[in-house]
Every structure is written in C-alpha cells, then in structure tokens.
Amino acid sequence: MLTKRIIPCLDIKNGRTVKGVRFENIRDAGDPVELAKWYAEQGADELVFLDITATNEERKTFAELVRDIARHIDIPFTVGGGISAVADVEVLLQAGADKVSINSAAIRNPQLVEDLARRFGSQCVTVAIDTKYTEATGWKVYARAGTVETEHATVHWAKKVVELGAGEILLTSMNNDGTKAGFALDITKAVSEAVSVPVIASGGAGTMQHFADAFQIAHADAALAASLFHFRELDIPDLKLFLKGEDIAVRC
Amino acid sequence: MNLVIVDYKAGNVQSVLFALERLGVQATLSCDFETIKAAEKVIFPGVGEASSAMAELRARNLDKLLPTLEQPFFGVCLGMQLLCKHSEEGDTDLLGIIPLPVKRFQTDLKVPHMGWNQLENLKSPLFEGIAEGEYAYYVHSYYVPLSEYTIAQTSYPEPFSAALQYKNFYAAQFHPEKSGPAGSQILKNFLAL
To answer: Nearest to residue A17, comparing CAs of A56, A90, A69?
Structure first.
C-alpha cells in the first residue's frame, strides 16, 4: 500500500540549515548534509531543502550543496527557493535533485509550470503555495515568502497549477506555520479534494496527533515539518509508530 | 567492472551515478554505440516524458542498438517503460524489446503514484535478500500491467509490474537509487548477476 510521507524541511542559508518561526526569528539548526543523512536513517520518506538566500552568487553555492546532498543520501529530495527559469531547474536536477519546488515564480509567470512539466515531466514539478486566511478575503495565495497578497483564491490556484502540469502541491498555511497548534485541516482538505495530484500539508505541526489529522481528516498525502524535527521535539520513528497504531499506512 | 549508464539527456543519471558510487562502483556515462556495446553491464535510467525520451534515443541511434544488447541490462522507471512496445503517454512507440503495453493509471487515487509502496511476489535474483513487502520509492503516472515477465508487483490500487525480466533485460518501475538500503541491495544484486 502506498504510504503517507513524512517530510522534514530544511531551510538553507549560506550552506547552513535555518528555520524561521512564522517566517521570522531565524535559528541555526545545523549542517544540511549531516542532518539529511540523519533524517534518512531515522526513516524520513523525503526531504525538502529551501534556499532562502537571495543573491545569484549564493544560489551557485546552493547547487553545489544539492550535489553534495545527492551524493550522500539515498532517499528522494525536493529543492526550492528563488527558482525563476527553466535553466535554474536544469542546474538543480543535474546536480541530483529529484524534484523542484516553485512558488512566487509560478505566480509571476504561470507558463513556467507548463514549460517545466513539458521539459522535465510533471513528476519533478512541485508547486509550493503559501496561503493565509482572513475573514475578509478567505484563503488567499501569498507571494514572495508570504509577504505579498495575490488575487488568487487558494483552491482555484491549486487547480490551475495542476492543469498547467504541477505534479504535487506543497501547501503551507501562514496562519498555522510556527504555531504548533496543528495543520490547517480545512484548506488542506479542500485543496486535496480539488486536485488529482498529491498534496503535502505544511505549517503548524506540533504533536503526533496533528500528523494523523492531516492524513485522516484533511486527506493529505504527505506532511512536512521543520523545527519540530530539527530540535528533536518529535522523532520520526516514534511518529511513525504512532501513525501505524492509528491505522495509517507508513513506512516503518 | 565496466559498467555503463546510458546518458541520453532524459535520465536523472546523477542520482544513479551517486548510488553506484556509494556501493564503491565507478560507472561510465555514455551514449556512444561502441562504449555501450562493450560494457559488461548497462543501466538505463529515465525520467520525464516517453515521446521526448524516444526522440532523444532515436537522435543517438540508440533505438537500434539497445534491443541488440546481450549483457545484463537494467532499465529504471521510464527506462523500464521504454523497453516495452507502446505507451499511452503521447501515443508513443517504444523500443519494443518486451512485448508489453504502458498504460495510464485510471483510478480515483492521486496520480502520479508518488511515494513509498510495497514490493510483492518477488521472483528474481534481483531481489536476493529483499523481504516480501519491502518498500521502494515510486514516482510515475503510467504503468506496465502484470505479465509473464513480471518479477515483482506493487498495488495502486490494482497490482502492476514493479519489475520485469525478459532475457537479459531487467527493469524496475521504482527507483532503486532512491529507495534507501533496500534499493542499494537491489542495485548490488544487479551488479552481481
């Protein structure tokens, strides 16, 4: 049976892992390659690396890091951050990444999703969506690391990028991110039911039950967390045993 | 060992190269007819879309060469599908080495079939030391149905061919290079054939 995936996310700046709480207050949580190896041994099903640096110079360093990661780990990983063109993706895939995640660039230029899917196949194109709920707007898509509100309603946008060729959606609720109060089950469920491709729930994981809820209530295919894993507040083997006990298919 | 990975610009060759490196094996990347023909073993990776991959193979005349090979050959993911006869993906004629069709998943489940799923009904030296029900990593939207050449199966939700063998041609729909220690063991088993 296909299992639900547990995905630690590593934010990378200057070759180091960092994690923003509610996209602020960045803390250092270690060396990405060592951390990646450790997670693979712990039973992580996949890893996500987000490059949160801004300059082209630093991005070149990121491609080297991707190569280093691919050399050392034997599970799939997705890389993202600052990708804006087909050429950026080519470099990262050639370095050994399995999938790329695009976010703001897809909003600026939806055609990019289609170009990437045609060139490399949908299976390696993950579209990351940062979403925020307000009473006035409902769930809206935000661009540029969650700083700019767009015109797109979240479910509608998710359907659109899948039509364009996205093979997976990484959905982060900004309301929940960093709160440890649980994933945004309503919007995750709405997106998961609206699209035919896998959906990764992200933002808000604090307990093992939160993961079970993401899978059983929101029908997510995978769930992602960062600081919760980095600071060992929750270990993946324990999490998987718990989920197995809840009759959720996991690899363990 | 003279091991060649077929490099035709449609494969995630780097991952396969690194996986072999972790096993202490140095492989050569090549799309050259003579180099591939002279190899002791050949690995044929592939990701992406079937018709573009076939176009890349034809451009290098590999559509003529690959079917004539007699050494142990291992197609991975799209590399497995390309060995078959015809794919629903882009209505594409494939290499035609294994007389089987490639079909699109028709299911209410999510497509692509992405993530870790179980290998069952294992019947090949390729799976020496691999337990029934072991997990392997998949990412694909098209599949090869069960057949007399199936040497492992996986269900999504119906069973399909997780791996095939036809003469010297072995193939896996999953990614052994991304399937943790079990995947490494399967690669090691291929190298020992």
So the answer is: A69
Nearest CB among B22, B48, B117 relative to A121 is that of B48
Residue spans per domain, chain A: 7-245
Which helix (H) or strand (E) is A67 found in, with range?
Answer: helix A56-72
Reading across the β-sheet that carries B101-104, which strands appear in turn?
B92-93, B86-87, B101-104, B142-143
The band of A58, judged by pLDDT with boundaries at 50, 70 and 90, is low
Q: What percent of chain B has pLDDT over 70?
A: 99
What is the tally of helices (H) and strands (E) in chain B? 6, 13
Quick check: A251 and B116 CB within 8 A?
yes
Beta bridge partners of B102: B87
Q: How many separate helices (H) and strands (E) can be counted in chain A?
A: 10, 12
Q: Please state the CATH superfamily assignment of the domain spanning residues A7-245 in this structure.
A: Aldolase class I (3.20.20.70)
Q: Are B131 and B151 in contact (CB under 8 A)?
A: no
Q: Please indicate whether, in this complex, the C-beta atoms of A121 and B47 are within 8 angstroms of each other.
A: yes
Question: Mapping DSSP to helix (H, G, I), strand (E, B) and coil, where does residue B158 land?
Answer: coil
Work out whether the CA dihedral A83, B17, B150, B69 comes out positive or negative: positive
| Residue A25: predicted pLDDT | 38
Give the count of beta carbons closer than 10 Å to the beta carbon of residue B38: 12
Residue A81 token pair: 């951050």
Amino acid at B36: I
- Residue B75, domain extent: 3-192
CATH number for the domain spanning B176: value is 3.40.50.880
The answer for residues whose C-beta is within 8 angstroms of residue A165's C-beta and 6 or more apart is A113, A114, A116, A117, A118, A122, A125
Instruction: Check pLDDT > 80 for residue A53.
Output: no
Could B112 and A94 be called an inter-chain contact, meaning their C-beta atoms sit closer than 8 Å? Answer: no
Q: Is B77 annotated as catalytic?
A: yes
If one counts every other C-beta atom within 10 angstroms of the C-beta of residue A58, the result is: 16
User: Could you read off the pLDDT of B150-168 as tens digits, one per residue?
Assistant: 999 999 999 999 999 999 9
